[in-house]
């Protein structure tokens, strides 16, 4: 069983320190109370004395100072004569009061001449800025003000009273006494020195006792410190048992170290089972964590821990540069797609990389984590699927072209046979052949544009002005049959577009809206600024027949049309153009209510 000598380290330290603090505080409070009571008593006495002197001075000044100057016929004279004459009169009264109260400084500030009379012949500006502020305060409040200035100013006690005659304040009377001229501060210092000596004795005694107790504690603390250093390198180490409260601390540290060791095993097992490469670097550039995939992909040795990342990571890879930018510039990367010639060999791997700054407690940056996924096989499968999709689209395209061209050719063939039998073409036959040839030409033209659209030449453009130009042309051709509603936002920013190609998109969509309303209707064209993704939207809505839900997924397929005579290339071309511009198209339609096409355009040059 442990003895009491080893158990109560904390209680003994607490007792000594508490006793030391208690005695020090009590002596300090006692000192302050003595000084405070002495100051209050003296100040109360001084204030009463000074108030009496100011009253006596006020009584000895007979009448108004303004009346005195008038009686002396000095009102019309210059200020200097008035100051001197009034000074002789007031200084005489001051000297009479001083005979009875030689230790009191008495004076009067006269407002009309802005001069302070203190019994001397100094009639210039002989008062401080502090006094001037008090003079003005007394004038404003029209009541007495008492001030006590500390020892650094000589220990001054002052009373300021308004000098009032005929109901008007003509000046301010000041009576003051300097405590430094008395024995007050000497007595106070004597008391302070006595109490400070007692405090010093208590502090020395308490410190000596505390040092003796601390010496018993130091050896155990040193042992614990050395054990904790061993735990930094090997969490399986344990600290030696210790007595008392230190024993409780040792048990807690050992338990905490065992939990961390277990958690490390869990983390290593979990990281080893993840297919993504995970690399953690601290703020000093040392690698702290690298799972199995990271070691294989980045060719890290087994002893990678606590070594500089720029020395171990492949020189030609993208990892060092991304970690540098994340550490230095605090730039986080999300799903960055990069190609890397692995280790300088012939094989190229496709990587999807993300980085992020690691933030610890209180917002403190502790390092960077890099996540890397090898998507080479996924890219190969995607390319294979895209090739299959392109072949399927090509088959659809060939079928559509054959179908679209066969009908005009059949009409032309029939009329040619008719000419051979009749030996002469009829006007109707010629008109039909001309129409079918024009149809073939339009199909071939749209097909060529769809197969190889012209290169987009992007420039900043006001989309509203482009829409107004197209609508003006449209209104001239279809005037009266269709109602046009413009809902253009005047605050939309400029968009980066090829005006000719976007005009083609608008014309195709307006043409679709007209064909959906053979009996007439309303077309609404709107623009808006989508500030969240930095894009401008353009909407064209009609009140036509609408499109059934089952057709929505095929609207942008070539040669897919819901109209008997439609080629199915208009929306396909519009879709290709908008994709080249870095935007997308959305469709909202309901049978019997109408259709709305909305396409989005970028406002930046990075299309």
Describe this structure in words.
It is an enzyme of class 2 (transferase). Its EC number is 2.7.13.3. Keywords: ATP-binding, Kinase, Membrane, Nucleotide-binding, Phosphoprotein, Transferase, Transmembrane, Transmembrane helix, Two-component regulatory system. The chain crosses the membrane at residues 12-32. One of its GO terms (molecular function) is ATP binding. The protein is of the alpha+beta class and 607 residues long. It has four domains: 9-185, PAS domain (Beta-Lactamase, 2-Layer Sandwich); 270-373, 2-Layer Sandwich (Beta-Lactamase), CATH 3.30.450.20; 380-451, Helix Hairpins (Orthogonal Bundle); 459-602, 2-Layer Sandwich (Heat Shock Protein 90). Helices cover 52% and strands 20% of the residues. It is built from 15 helices and 17 strands. The protein has helices spanning 4-7, 9-60, 65-71, 79-100, 129-141, 184-233, 244-272, 292-297, 309-312, 319-329, 376-422, 427-451, 463-477, 499-515, 570-580; strands at 105-110, 115-117, 145-149, 156-165, 168-178, 277-282, 287-290, 333-341, 348-359, 365-374, 459-461, 482-487, 495-497, 521-530, 535-542, 585-590, 594-602. It has a five-stranded antiparallel β-sheet with strand order 2-1-5-4-3. Strands 7-6-10-9-8 form a five-stranded antiparallel β-sheet, sandwiched between helices. A five-stranded mixed β-sheet has the order 12-14-15-17-16, covered by helices on one side. β6 and β7 (287-290) form a beta hairpin. The longest helix has 52 residues, at 9-60. The chain is flat, with a radius of gyration of 50 Å. The chain starts with a helix and ends in a 5-residue tail after the last strand.
